[in-house]
Prior knowledge:
alpha/beta, seven-stranded mixed β-sheet, two-stranded antiparallel ribbon, 11 helices, about 45% helix
Amino acid sequence: MVILNYILYYLVILPIAYLPFRVLYMLSDVLFFLFFRLIKYRKKVVLRNIANAFPDQSKEEHIRIAIKFYHHFCDVMVETFKSFAISQDDLLKRNKLINPELINHYFEKGQSVILAGGHYNNWEWVATGMDCQVKHSVIAIYKSLSNKFFDEKVLKSRSNFGLKMISTKRVTEIFDNKKNDITATIFAIDQSPANPRKAYWLQFMNQETACFYGTEKYAKQYNMPVLFGSVRKVARGYYEYEFLVVTDNPAVEEKGFITKKTNLILENDILQAPEFWLWTHKRWKHSRPEGIQMETVFE
Length: 299
């Protein structure tokens, strides 16, 4: 296994990472043919997710969205490989924050913030380059990979430009230990909770959906303003993102407000350009358990 890890990383991933962008996207086109036409990677999951999210659209429209998605998915894949060797100049040229003054306003007031976002467009580049574009110290919450070799390599690549990666197992510890620091902590809101009985259930993309409550939980506990990072793909390999205010004062919001609003913003982004969301993941693998009410906070 160790030898295979070294072969994959040094003989496959790194050579791809050093390819010029023009060649990189030629490779992406080849991967599209491989993933969509030949091995049909999670194609049933993708089409089922899209069909359930857009029940009023035709099968032909679902396939059209899927084709666009797989093209984008392969772009993100090669861009993720590129992250192992990308320069800061290239990253910032291709991944721009268009309203840094909004988040920097909170820094000037000495306020830490929580940043919510989804697996939309190139979320990896957004997180990796954010510390270079804001005044806060940026932290990202992540789930450790089971493969320790690649977990170490991925952590290093994501941390090259100042981003600090914190395991999901250490979230409370980090919030307690960094009370005196001015931080911006990134939470991904569109993963599927392991325990559907401890999830916040709401309507998302036309389906009953189990949502993590952690973003809201920590925002209210530490009364940190919540911003949402909305990302747009402006051209192949080029992204812009902006922050939107969810709430300045989480402590006074009713329970569920932050979770509902962040998911609503993400849903609106997906509806505008559905091909840029990560349709391959099994977002709706859980059904709402009997006795669990919609929009009810479990604590």
